[in-house]
Amino acid sequence: MSLRTTGSVLVVFLWSVTVVLGQNGWGVTYTTQRIYVLKQSTVNLSCSYMYPSGHIVTSTFWFIEWQYGAAEPNDLSQDPRYAGRVTYYSDKNGHTLAITDLRNTDSAEYKFRFITDHNGGRYSGHPGVTLSFTDFLLEMDPTSVSEGGKVTLLCRTTCTLDHNPEYIWYKNEKSVNNPVTSFNKLILDPVNSVDAGRYSCAVRGCNDLRSPENTLTVRYGPRKPSVLLSPSGEIVEGSSVTLTCSSDANPPVNNYIWYKMTTGPSMSITGPQHVFKEIQPSDTGHYYCFTSNEDGRNTSESVYINVTYGPRKPSVSVSPSSEIVEGSSVNLTCSSDANPPVDNYTWYKSGINPYKDIHVNTGPQHVFNHIKSNDTGKYYCKAYVGIKMNSTSIHIDVKYGPKNISVSVSYFGKILKGHSVTLTCSSNANPLVQNYTWYKDNITIKASGQSYNLTILGSEDSGEYLCEAKNEYGRLNSSLVFVNVLYNPKNTSVSVSPSGKVMEGSSVTLTCSSDANPPVNNYTWYKKNVTSPKASGQSYSITNIRSEDSGEYYCEAENMVGTHKSTFVMINVAGTQALVMTAAAGVTVVVLIVILCVSGLVCFRRSKSSQSTYDKRKTQDTANNLDNSPVYENVSSKTMTSTAAQTENTDNQEDLHYVSVHFSPSKNQEVPLYCTIQQSHPLKQEEETQYAAVKFNCPSAVPRPAACGAEEDPSVLYSTVNTPRINKT
Predict the structure, then answer these.
(1) pLDDT tens digits for range 91-148
(2) How many structural domains is the chain composed of?
(3) Percentage helix, strand, coil, to 5, in the chain?
(4) Which residues form the signal peptide (predicted)?
């Protein structure tokens, strides 16, 4: 701004003269005789007074009028026109009148009067102080100007002074760079925004007598706007944030627009404030405001909003992403979005206790160099930013072939014939075992499945069993499981030593053998038809044997499961007479066999000659119904014992021996011929009986010969030879 002054008109004139008025020791002295004031201003009128000694002042006041006939003039403080605007100040021999809010009607001559305690002790100062108003004005052209324009200030008054006054200019009650001009004009060119304010003027020497203020308005566009961010500290996701744009402008900014800097300005929001009620991470960025009024526009510097937030739910990646096989290398990587970035990753594995996880690692990665099957499970990645945390889980499924394979047996206790036993194959594998194979004594069993149901049939089911478990990642055999089937003795037999002829006086040892599980723990020897046992133990030895020791012997084998008897073994003690009788009996038997065979042949021929008399059709039907029948010659040696002895043990019976002779008759017919020879042992101890029997069986359809037609089964012939037994002395 530059200041220039022009003109020569005096605006304010002030007389300041001290007047002393008095006589005979009485007097009033005013500090000024005339004073010029401005409307609505305040003025102080002061004076001093004196009076003769011996008097005491009882009353002091100011007045402007003394009504005719009135004893005293009107006290100005009691005048309604000055109510509330007049104040007296007094001190020793001095008095001041203060009038505020001066009005044009206040123009008058003001006099001071005091009264003492003596009659006639009254006095007024004449003449008084004349109060006049002046039209001391400040003209401004224009009162509103755009920045860079021109303003002229002119100071005027209605009273004229007879000398060249100097003018003082004021802005906002302070002198404008202390300019003093000899002219009443001040020019501001070019006007700056700082030139705006309240202006007034005065005359040097009467600095307190200033013109009324006149306001200069300087219009200008927005100064550089500033953006205030509240709160000013850390901005947390979800909190309330306010951006406030402010700019110095005259007139004030009437248009605010907010922008967020991305690749280009975006988001247009109006108003001096932009409020985020619940700020989000996506609100992070640079913001600036645009301001404008009719005199200009401006843009603020950008302010950066950094929205902090705790870790987002982490994501976990697995490498390799395909199936995880035991022994391979596996890498788990945890990542999480956070602001500020995650400063701590911690890995946990779910434990058996669901409320207590197992810490396994720290850091964004968890590496299994050689992953194991027991590494299968749920893993947690926890991401921390300060005290804020978030987590996610991932399941690791380790694939592996069968391991820890075992076979369990469902039956506890003694396994006996008829029992049902289940063998169950157990194995850890992932995926589960797809195929089970069972082996017994290293031979594959026709069985599949995790369980093998075995019904015990006998000792042949005993053995070592194992299972093979297989999946796509491998196979493994279990350890052997021995199934021990317990069974009572069987295949019990007796051997004789020596095995040849037993002569009187020699020694014979009988040995019992039996198959049993558990092994036989007790052998008992018996002689047929003798109730009490002969001996115990696996071997039974007879020394100095005699003929009365002859007979059938057997042993009984016993274990914890049961017992079993052997077949009979015949001990024949041979003496001299016995040998002769045996030879005779043998010759007799041979002769009888020859006779019987000849008799059978004769019978056969008779039957053939009689056959021709039958009807051929009948003969043909009969022939068709007959089988080709062989001719048997049966020779057996059977012990003739009591029924009880025969039924005691079917295993003790001896076998029959058969000899067959086939005859081929003419035509299509065969006639069977049976010959049975039986040798029986004596019922009594003192003798032996030999039997020979010949039996003819003739077909019912063929007429029997005379030899075969008897009522009492004439087809059986018996021949008996008795051999006396020598009793031992």
Answers:
(1) 888 999 999 998 989 999 999 999 999 888 888 888 999 998 876 788 999 999 999 9
(2) 6
(3) 10, 50, 40
(4) 1-22
